[in-house]
C-alpha cells in the first residue's frame, strides 16, 4: 500500500488557495486603500480659490443684523431732572453663521447694553436739537457729562432697556437661509474691552457656515474683511443690499492695555461691518471685525479684528462645533489633485490587485514540478489490493524535450512498495536500456522508462505496467 507523501499533490488533485495566497490578497488590497487614504486627508488640502469664487462661497454665510434699543432717559432740565418720552434707537451690524443650525457670531459691542444706553442718550440729544431746544454745539458739549450721569431704564422702574435683534440675508444671494427677517436670541456675550464677541441663535436649518481658523495669522498674510457698511446701505436699495468684500493683509498682532489679543489689518472696517468675518485666502475666519482708531486729524488710521485663537476657543466653550478649517497644500507644489482622481486611481489599483491575485491562485493550481514534488511522469501510487507492477518495470519516460528533474536530497519517506526495482548509482549500457548513446553517462537514474498507457474507462493516464487505473480502479490493458 502506497502512503501519501508530503512532496505534493498528484496530478488529479486541485488545491484551495493557501495562506500565502490570502496574504497576497491582503497586501494587494491594501494598496488601493492606502492610495485613497493618503490622497484624502481629514483636513483636505486645497489650492486657494480666486476672489470671485471665494466671495460666492462666503456670502451665503454672512448675515445683516438689526439691533433696536428702547427705553427712557432721566435727564437734566432747567426745572430739574425729568423722564423723557419713550425713546428708540436702531443700529446695524454684520454677523456670520458658525453652524448649520442657526448659530451666528458677531461683535460683542453690537449687542452690549452699555452701547444701547449710550445710543438712547444720543437719541434724546438729537431729539432736543430737532425740537430747537438745543443747538448742535450745545448737544455736543452736554454729551460727555450726560453719558456719565444720566440714568437710562426700561419700561418699568429699574428694569433694563429693551433690546430686539433681527437677522436677515439679501434674497438675491444664492444659498441664503434667511431671506426674511427673523428674530435672534442672544446666547452669550463678551464686552468689547474683554474680547468683543457675541453668539446669537435663529431658528433655521441648512445655513451655510464658515470654518474658523485655529492659529493666529502672520504679518503680511492676505485676507478679506466682509460686512454691510452703513455708507453703502445709505445709497443702496435696502432689499438688494449685498455684502462688501475688502481685501488687505495682516498688519500686526497686538494686545490691548486690558490684556486682550487683537489683530491689526490694513483693510478698512467701516461702521456697519462690525461683527462681520475677516477671512484668509481659503475662507477660514481669522477674526470678527471689531473696531478702528482715528488719528489726530480724524482720519481712520488703524483697523482691528478679534484674535483668531480666542474666537475659536470662545465658540467651543459655548457649545459651538465649528467646521474644520481648510488647509493649503504644503510647499509650492502643484494644486491639490481633485478627489475623483484619487478614487479613480484607487479603483484602478484594485483591479490590478485582483488580476494579480487571480494569477497567483491559478499558478498554485498547476501541477507541482519543483521543490521536491513528484514529477508529472513519476510512477503513480498503488491502490490498496493492487498487484505490483512486474519486476524491472519503471516509471514512464518523460515527454520529449522536457527537462530532467533536478537532483535533490530526498526527504525521509516510507519504504518503496514491493515489486519496484531499486535505483543504483551505477550507469547501464545504453544498448540494454534502449537509451540513445550520446557518448555520455545517463543522468539521475538507471531505471527503465517504458511507455505509459491510458485507461479506457475514464481516460486517465496509467503508469507504465500498471494493471489497474489509479483514478477509477478499472483494469488497464
What does this structure look like?
The protein has 477 residues and is an alpha+beta fold. The protein folds into three domains: 1-44 and 336-374; 51-317, Thrombin, subunit H (Beta Barrel), CATH 2.40.10.120; 377-401 and 420-433 and 445-477, no CATH class. The chain is 22% helix and 22% strand. The chain is built from eight helices and 17 strands. It has helices at residues 19-39, 51-58, 113-130, 136-149, 230-233, 308-317, 339-365, 430-433; strands spanning 62-77, 80-83, 87-97, 103-106, 151-153, 162-168, 182-183, 185-190, 197-201, 222-227, 244-255, 261-265, 277-279, 285-294, 300-306, 453-454, 461-462. The strands form three sheets. Strands 1, 2, 3, 4, 5, 6, 7, 8 and 9 form a nine-stranded antiparallel β-sheet that branches. A six-stranded antiparallel β-barrel has the order 10-11-12-15-14-13. Strand 3 and strand 4 form a beta hairpin. It is elongated, with a radius of gyration of 45 Å. Residues 1-15, 39-44, 368-387, 389-394, 405-409 and 411-449 have low confidence and may be disordered.
SSE blueprint:
Layout: H1 19-39, H2 51-58, E1 62-77, E2 80-83, E3 87-97, E4 103-106, H3 113-130, H4 136-149, E5 151-153, E6 162-168, E7 182-183, E8 185-190, E9 197-201, E10 222-227, H5 230-233, E11 244-255, E12 261-265, E13 277-279, E14 285-294, E15 300-306, H6 308-317, H7 339-365, H8 430-433, E16 453-454, E17 461-462
Antiparallel strand pairs: 1-2, 1-3, 1-5, 1-6, 3-4, 4-9, 6-7, 8-9, 10-11, 10-13, 11-12, 12-15, 13-14, 14-15, 16-17
Helix pairs in contact: 1-7, 3-4
